[in-house]
Design a protein that fits this description.
- It is a single chain.
- With about 130 residues, this protein is an alpha+beta fold.
- It is built from four helices and seven strands, in the order αββααβββββα.
- The chain has helices spanning about 5-10, 40-50, 55-60, 110-125, and strands spanning about 20-25, 30-35, 60-65, 65-75, 80-85, 85-90, 95-100.
- Helix 2 (about 40-50) packs across helix 3 (about 55-60).
Amino acid sequence: MSWQTYVDSNLVGSGHVTQGAMLSAADGSVWATSAGFTVAPAEGAAVVAALADIAKFQQSGITVNGVKYFCVKAAPGELIGKKGAAGIAIYKSAQAILVGVYGEGINPANCNMTVEGLKDYLVGVGY
């Protein structure tokens, strides 16, 4: 399965994620994104840095796809952010970073569980 299929089917196709992406855990480079969702190189690098230093995310939030989210939860390998009725869930496996965004009308917990579930699957297959 291609990285794009994971984003389109497992994240956005779930109905719990409105936009998503997969990034390299090494440098934040983009592997796949959903339609209309862009992760600039500097944003990808900032995601990697925030996962390495969660205090920075807690203090400054994070910008992805040009939208700045403030910290709701930060733990090793997990960043949860919010902006208004929208939010973002970021989870890291050994080699990948999964990004899921939800909009108004979507339960944040469902988005978080969907993104985390794909991360758990990737971890289980050694990725």
